[in-house]
Amino acid sequence: MASKIQTLPGFRDFPPQACALRNYLFRKWRAAAIAHGFQEYDGPVLESLELFTEKSGPEIVTQLFNFEDKGGRQVSLRPELTPTLARMVGANAGSLKRPIKWFSIGECFRFEKQQKGRKRSFYQFNADILGEAGPGADAELIALCIQSMRSFGLGPEHVVLRLSDRTLWMAFLAALGLDEEASIKALSIVDKMERVDADYTRQQLSHILGEGTESFLARVAAMKAVSSIEGLEAFVSGLGMEALSERMAQWRELWGILDAMGLAEFCRVDLGIVRGLAYYTGFVFEVFERSGEGRALAGGGRYDRLVEKLGYAPLHATGFAAGDVTLADLLESKGLLPSLLPALDCYVVYGGEAEKAEAMRAVATLRSLGISVDYPVKAAGFGKMFKQADLSGARLCLIFGGEELAERRFKMRDMASGGEVTGPLCDLVEGVKLRLAHGIEK
Ligand code: HAM
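That is the input. Now the predicted structure with histidyl-adenosine monophosphate docked in place:
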């Protein structure tokens, strides 16, 4: 026997139940984005390799699904949507009303090591605001990120948004004498600290910081201990860096908006978050399960230099993406998934070929009105057809038997109660609508 061909590692089939779950996530994400005044966009899943090698940072480059196409071009499946968005907006910036509030739901591809919460193909909900420099835009995105989680029934007891700041980090690293390149490398090591061995982190940092590694790690530990806006104020003022007082005013503005929206209880100051992607420049955040378990549910931040790096006029930008894999796992583990497969309204059974034409007329009429209807494509005895009606999960069974049709009538059975009524064929639509709404008593 031929060997069974399976999906590639990290790729998923979506049979109806899984597809219904995916569509449920998409529906909620889309509704939240629209409620926050965002417009939907999309881009190509295949891009030139260069778009990602230069812009996303070294970690993502090792995870690219890249190859040479038949025209000899170096291309890659998209690992994220942000560079595509930056290019699209950069190329059209002159004609777009500011601020630009766009969202997208799309498939991304990363050649990652197989682990819980990580796939090689996954879906992301991206939302971004471009053309706005102030913390109000960051607050708006954090609000959308939290509200979208809330719309699935997740509360502050389930999830936490850990808020940090690359501006503060870059200032600390500059004060330690690191240039921009070394700072970005140091931050990518800090980003992975929670997930790797402490000795490995030490060894990696020593390539950049040499003898300063231990004092740097002590500083990181002190920064990570900060968990509130008051704690942050105290920490920053203790550093005596005058240049950071303006930054702290922006922190207060951001926090004030989140507090006024009633979202502060979802948020925690956490400078341990620095983000793995290289392009971030300001506030950054990630959302995790409150228990601290599992990989991130969402992540994002400000990236004010990416549009310019792609060759377009500079444009302020901030955004986030949430993934489908960790979110679905969390909703399932908390029992927050509703029943998702749509219930069928009616199942039609008929006596035989003589009654089939009338039954098919009814099927077509009901379907054209948006009532979902199924029937046995192959005629069988009534007993078998009723069994199929049962299996279909339909709420009503419409019966077109010889006796009823002789009187221009049809019969309806409520599949839950077993109650039955008959009605004239000319009232079929009204009868079905009434019984779908109110059922039939036994
Ligand atoms: P990211 O943190 O790389 O950010 O990904 C965002 C989310 O996508 C993660 O929190 C996670 O839920 C999901 N995700 C990422 N990789 C995988 C994977 N291999 N399998 C399953 N889920 C995954 C970005 O992609 C940025 N472009 C977000 C952004 C938008 N920043 C500004 N605008």
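The chain has two domains: 16-333, 346-438.
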